[in-house]
From TrEMBL, chains A, B:
<keyword id="KW-1003">Cell membrane</keyword>
<dbReference type="InterPro" id="IPR006357">
    <property type="entry name" value="HAD-SF_hydro_IIA"/>
</dbReference>
<dbReference type="GO" id="GO:0046872">
    <property type="term" value="F:metal ion binding"/>
</dbReference>
<feature type="active site" description="Nucleophile">
    <location>
        <position position="31"/>
    </location>
</feature>
<dbReference type="Pfam" id="PF13242">
    <property type="entry name" value="Hydrolase_like"/>
</dbReference>
<dbReference type="GO" id="GO:0005829">
    <property type="term" value="C:cytosol"/>
</dbReference>
<dbReference type="GO" id="GO:0016791">
    <property type="term" value="F:phosphatase activity"/>
</dbReference>
<dbReference type="InterPro" id="IPR006349">
    <property type="entry name" value="PGP_euk"/>
</dbReference>
<feature type="binding site">
    <location>
        <position position="221"/>
    </location>
    <ligand>
        <name>substrate</name>
    </ligand>
</feature>
<dbReference type="GO" id="GO:0005886">
    <property type="term" value="C:plasma membrane"/>
</dbReference>
<feature type="binding site">
    <location>
        <position position="247"/>
    </location>
    <ligand>
        <name>Mg(2+)</name>
    </ligand>
</feature>
<feature type="active site" description="Proton donor">
    <location>
        <position position="33"/>
    </location>
</feature>
<protein>
    <recommendedName>
        <fullName>Pyridoxal phosphate phosphatase</fullName>
    </recommendedName>
</protein>
<dbReference type="InterPro" id="IPR036412">
    <property type="entry name" value="HAD-like_sf"/>
</dbReference>
<feature type="binding site">
    <location>
        <position position="33"/>
    </location>
    <ligand>
        <name>Mg(2+)</name>
    </ligand>
</feature>
<keyword id="KW-0479">Metal-binding</keyword>
<dbReference type="Pfam" id="PF13344">
    <property type="entry name" value="Hydrolase_6"/>
</dbReference>
Amino acid sequence: MAGAFGFKGCQKIRGPQIRSLLEAKDYILFDCDGVIWHGEKAITGAAKVVSSLIRHGKNVVFVTNNSTRPRENYVHKFCRLGFTDVMLEQIFSSSYCSALYLRDVVKVCGQVFVIGCDGLRRELQEAGIPCVEEADDPDATIYNCALAPDVKAVLVGHDDQLTFLKLAKASCYLRDPDCVFLATDNDPWHPLSSGRILPGSGSLIAALEVASGRKATVIGKPSRFMFECISSQFRGVDPAQCLMIGDRLETDMLFGSNCGFDTMLTLTGVSQIEEAQEYRNSELTTNQSLVPDYVVDTIADFLPAFEGLEEQEEPEEQEEKSN
Amino acid sequence: MAGAFGFKGCQKIRGPQIRSLLEAKDYILFDCDGVIWHGEKAITGAAKVVSSLIRHGKNVVFVTNNSTRPRENYVHKFCRLGFTDVMLEQIFSSSYCSALYLRDVVKVCGQVFVIGCDGLRRELQEAGIPCVEEADDPDATIYNCALAPDVKAVLVGHDDQLTFLKLAKASCYLRDPDCVFLATDNDPWHPLSSGRILPGSGSLIAALEVASGRKATVIGKPSRFMFECISSQFRGVDPAQCLMIGDRLETDMLFGSNCGFDTMLTLTGVSQIEEAQEYRNSELTTNQSLVPDYVVDTIADFLPAFEGLEEQEEPEEQEEKSN
């Protein structure tokens, strides 16, 4: 039916087709949550897939909207879950890229008011960007609290310690039209293993957009900025050489489309294949950007594809140590 | 110019024109904040205007989106600020009308999870609607907290004690499609005398709409439901007999238009006459619903209009006491 109506995308692929695809791509971009792991549990086979890709000379990059931990902690997490060959330079989180944006694009002169976790603050500090220190005064209200005089940006990310006071302070800072309004990502919610959900940054941004009457600049997927960070670090990347693999149509697939990558949906996370097919069959042309080119059940489906793929020569042990 | 382009509305009126208008109307509907008072300070002359209208036999009704206090407290506040003849039955707050909606329209069987102030909970209790009691456990998180099994509605109003946990709990309850999603009002923010702003219910609703992927039913202005409550209490009200007076184009004027009332903007609150004129001159026909028919600087401009207006006979003192 798909063919008859000229639909494309959502192609479920296996071993040999995956092999051809991987042969054609130099950069493999992975989302993390729902693709590589669920919380503290790695997707079965994911570690082997990642190390095989690296061993086969692919540039493997992790592009995550999760702003709650600094990149350093990601390296530890990768290691803890059995991904022993992932390095800091391969990790592009929305907190890291937000810090780059504030430092290199905005060139912010003044303090940043952060709604977010400590990990986000740590990334800003690493980049030399001062954040407003929050006094822990239980009696403070928006009527009586101090507001910092030199706040030049409000940055919103996931914050499980959000309070009304933080929201109110951010709204007040944003009254200054010169105060930049930035968001790490726009994820609306996150699934928990219990079946419960966690409101995401997108939820907090919506609150602040309504209170301030302004629109936030979003750093994370599906915005292109994270690709600009990747491209800048790798000194130019041809989008045609990139494959974006993710579990969320509205962030990962759209990010891939926005950047001109081939895209792959893995069914171990948020989005179902039926939703992808619905977008594909929709008459709205904008929905086509949400349709993955390829679909796999899990990235473990890559494993048979490596059989017979040419491996890059291992560097000598001596050299490896000196790196 | 206005005439040449066929614009209507935004008519600035004074003494004799106000008198004619009042003569034509039986119901005078007032917003409170920015119209009658600013916080704890009455607008100069407002108390005299209200008591003159009542003395002249008008049905004076207060229609407020402010959900933070029960109606009883409004009576006290009116009295405290010199409005000594305002009674409970004249007050239609978004919390009171939300309680009526849950009781009489939804006929909710189960508990209501409330994001809001104590005043909102009190109105629900008055209407016999049980609310989820919140345990005050500082260690509770959405990962480990209890969720009530019988929540049939989430009601969101202004809440200066909002926490991430409340937002997360509400998002979880709303995963049940049979759980009603209700909001007292959609006010985006409120001005404080310090020049600061307070995020309004509309801000919190936006957060929850994004996290839940659902749209809230809004009780307060500009929704028509509060007029249905008024009309039900007064056993039928002809909209042509009503004048809505408010300070906010997007709530008060739109509410009036939605209900078929004549509308009047008073310039003692949020909206400026320039904004009203912008809406009037706009090519978007939907914007016309935001344009007030009349504009006054303050409702104190009514005072000269009462001179020579026929007063209703005062009831005898004996009768007054027995009421």
